[in-house]
Amino acid sequence: MTRYNYINAKNWFSKPRVICGLMTGTSLDSIDSVLASFSVDIFGRHQFEIIEQHKSEIPDKIKNLIHKIIKSDSSISELSFVNSELSRLYSLSVHSILKTSNLLLSEVDAIGIHGQTVWHEPKKNDDNINQHLGHTLQLGSASYLANLLNIPVVGDFRAADIALGGQGAPLVPIFDYNFFLSKTEDIIMLNIGGMSNLTHIPANATEDDVIAFDTGPGNVLIDTFMQKYFNKPYDDLGFHARSGKIIPQLFEILKKNDFIHQSPPKSTGRELFNEDYISSLINWSGLEKFDYNDFVCTLSEFTAWSIAENIIKFTNPKGKLIVSGGGSQNLFIIDRLKAYLPKVELFLTDYFGIPYDAKEALCFAYLAWRTLGLLHGNIPTATGAMRRAILGVIALP
Amino acid sequence: MTRYNYINAKNWFSKPRVICGLMTGTSLDSIDSVLASFSVDIFGRHQFEIIEQHKSEIPDKIKNLIHKIIKSDSSISELSFVNSELSRLYSLSVHSILKTSNLLLSEVDAIGIHGQTVWHEPKKNDDNINQHLGHTLQLGSASYLANLLNIPVVGDFRAADIALGGQGAPLVPIFDYNFFLSKTEDIIMLNIGGMSNLTHIPANATEDDVIAFDTGPGNVLIDTFMQKYFNKPYDDLGFHARSGKIIPQLFEILKKNDFIHQSPPKSTGRELFNEDYISSLINWSGLEKFDYNDFVCTLSEFTAWSIAENIIKFTNPKGKLIVSGGGSQNLFIIDRLKAYLPKVELFLTDYFGIPYDAKEALCFAYLAWRTLGLLHGNIPTATGAMRRAILGVIALP
Hints:
homodimer, about 400 residues, alpha/beta, Nucleotidyltransferase, domain 5, 2 domains, 6-stranded mixed β-sheet, 5-stranded mixed β-sheet, 15 helices, 13 strands
């Protein structure tokens, strides 16, 4: 704390702070916001209390522009526009969540924004040449939002870790560690989003004992198939998977996927698990030979298996498995995880007061709170960074 | 100061702070850096002392990528790369300036970066619809640089003012006001860069009495002609202009340019004064009929006239005229300004201890110092913003 002696972290932590966290994921389905209060208890432990949760639509015009940007198909003018326009949309989300919560803007201490990732290219593990640092780009301007709302905003959380040679991800482990560490049993926090990632917190762990990595696909394979062959966004409650049966030869091929067997640290994305990947597998299996539900069943089984396989191989498969993300609502996947992992006790984060679809926004509210209190936000054993860093940039209007 | 009571501005201003300012302009000719110490004297006045000045080349590969980005010709991966790579180049500039200054990195309190503007589209004056806010985009990540060097970095200075409905420019006036205000005489600070802009500080002015605006072309017309017809980057010392004579019919047409006669606030750029503009005028005049030096002379005369005309029409043309920027080294322009403005006393900023090519980098060091002390950086009468704002984002590694 001596380094920034003009910034008084002690004062920041001296009372509960209300932070609004805003998350827009790669699926572009919504702007997720959470309003929460963070405080430090008399034992120095961090506490949170969720005040309100909210979802806003991203207008189609902006969604389309973001897709254009990601495909390198946009003009620089459009990219610059989206960078500011996202901040304007975030400001509307903040107004909405405040309205339902009956809080005033002046009662909010700060806002944390993840921003919209349009490129993420961390340093490769085999690339040790200093000139080839990684890079990442999230759109949504912290300064712009701070001035629209006249409230401090923290954003751009991933750049610091990448500059330090880390993957810039996952950033959730510091939240998981602070709020789910148990003295007596192992905890695995699993988020099933587009991809699946987990944080393993051994019983009584120090921060450096925490490991975290992507296990492979989350909903991405199932959703892609559902959208193409059923014209539905996802397999609601796992209904289609439960109506089908496993295609054994397809399941066996899927299980051979290299990524699943790689040792952590590892991270993946739509570069690997995408429509092309599914199409090639379906063509190989023969689409006409099976019921569409059989494909959903097999892809869902593979998704559950790949998560379980990673847990068995690379963590200690006992204690509590606590699941969040859209995939936690797929009953087929949850049932299969239970079957694959008989020794773990499975919960949803909802059981601990965190709605399954609010966890990421809550994490970025927490990270903003940490940054404003000058605490680091990354866990180097999880990201691979050379050291801890206070994440993000602070805009004070 | 009560708002961010966990940030102690009093402490920040309690001793001199060493700040490194880094500027990369639209001409992409170099990374200009200045190392300076800022302090508050016993009367509460701000003081600066330049410790060192430095210029680094921007590698051709990066220059070309920036040109591609500006022309909407780059991939999103390239744009994301440049955003981080510029920070890496800035970190090398900081190491270089420290080496020549014999200061240690640990003796630097903070860095201020302007970043590389790749788009600047403020709200138009006639656009009062809230949905059409302006936007601006500077590449170069503050968080990335802060973590490469392990020093606080302030960046992204223009977004706040734009979010508040301002032009996001000029940001130099707060520097001019604090360091050049006179109790007894009017001061006009003139920077002749690619474009020319001025800050008018009436004698004994309050901050709200300050006006600032672009007068029109700086070196842009001359440089463009020199590069095309003489294969030289610029007219060194105004030699070519002094060897030529004015082409009266061309000068008369140039003087009719609308922008010159517009009332401030106004700002311009390469959208208006560019190669097409010159080509059309030359074609109209007939290139073969005149000596090339006559064109340089006429374009230089017009540049000086347009500055003087704006000073006469929109400010009080007496007191001191203090000139900086590359154009201040063009003796033809300086001579013509003296002739057009007989009642003003003309100086270069060098006379006041600021090298003509260091002023902008020094301004951004000053703006960073202000931001870290929670002082606003914009002057709403100059930018058109609806209120004062603490500019930029702060990255604390």
